[in-house]
Amino acid sequence: MKRILLLLAAAVLFVGAAKNPRQTYIDKYYPLAVLEMQRTGVPASITLAQGLLESGAGQSPLATVAHNHFGMKCHNDWAGDTFFKDDDKEKECFRAYPTDEDSYRAHSDFLRGRERYKSLFELDPTDYKGWAHGLRRAGYATDSGYATKLINLIEDFQLYKYDTMTEDDLPAGTVASLAAAPATEPEPAAETVTERPAEPVRPKTVREVPEERPATPAVVLQPEDYKESVSLSLERPVYTTNGVRYIRAVEGESWASLAAEYRLSVKQLLRYNDLERPTALEPGARVYLERKKPQASDSTLYEVDQDGRTLWDISQMFGIQLKKLMAYNRFPANMVLEEGDTVILRKR
Description:
Helix 2 crosses helix 3 and helix 2 (21-40) packs across helix 5 (100-112). The chain has 2 domains: 19-62 and 100-175, Lysozyme; 202-344, no CATH class. The longest helix is centred in the N-terminal third of the chain and has 20 residues, at 21-40. The radius of gyration is 22 Å and the shape is globular. The chain is of the alpha+beta class. It has helices at residues 2-18, 21-40, 44-55, 61-66, 100-112, 128-137, 146-156, 174-179, 255-261, 266-272, 311-318, 322-329; strands at residues 82-85, 92-95, 219-221, 228-231, 238-241, 244-248, 286-288, 300-303, 342-344. The termini are far apart.
């Protein structure tokens, strides 16, 4: 009889654990957190922990009605939809987003676009403790125990495992389904107008329009076949290829000047472009403003069109991470290619 009772108790505990709202939230939103980490460098564990804490595991009215998972307030410069609720004061104004994806993107852009969080992006991507304490020191929350709460959530639910994931590790179809979500506007500076420069970085909508091709195991591409889109702003055009944003350098620019212009550290900008140290920037060179994708959007090969190209050149041409191209093709980044060589752009 005692054994039966123990088994029943274990079954109840199992069912209760299976219905844990925090785990349900994690299972639902970790792909978004991983994609945002790949796009902006904000650790997925931090994003998930903040989402859990700020939204009550997705069950707060702010999250369910306004799709606001991170308690983002309106401030004076918010022109979108609003949601009012009592917080530090009565009837405070919070931002309302069309979708959960918009909320996650806005949260990442908020952290990346504020000077006071800039030092966090210098940390090791897996240093969730450094990020948690850094957020608290930078004033993200007034709660003195905020960092401890984030760390406890990360460790209790092993959220740190998501910090080493890539798009390849996500369930099939995740990237395609989320790519259809509308892009959010850039986050303006909340504290002062002078905290960040004019914001040409993210136009309202920048969408790559890929060429339709028959479903084939591998398509050999020439550079002109691989589409890029461009959105013009008052400052400079921002392009996308393979869903990744970049600009083209002009005469006299350096990695340091571009990093300052786009609110990034030099180290971060170099990492986005698969470089260990600054190089001379030729006019017209592509400079990616976010992390490149692990592979091309289609199952494709590229036929080298001229002698002298390297794998790094191809990675910049197609918006694909260099380390992934090296793995697919099994040759070093600086290997000089010849016209007619083929380069694999996608995991087979």
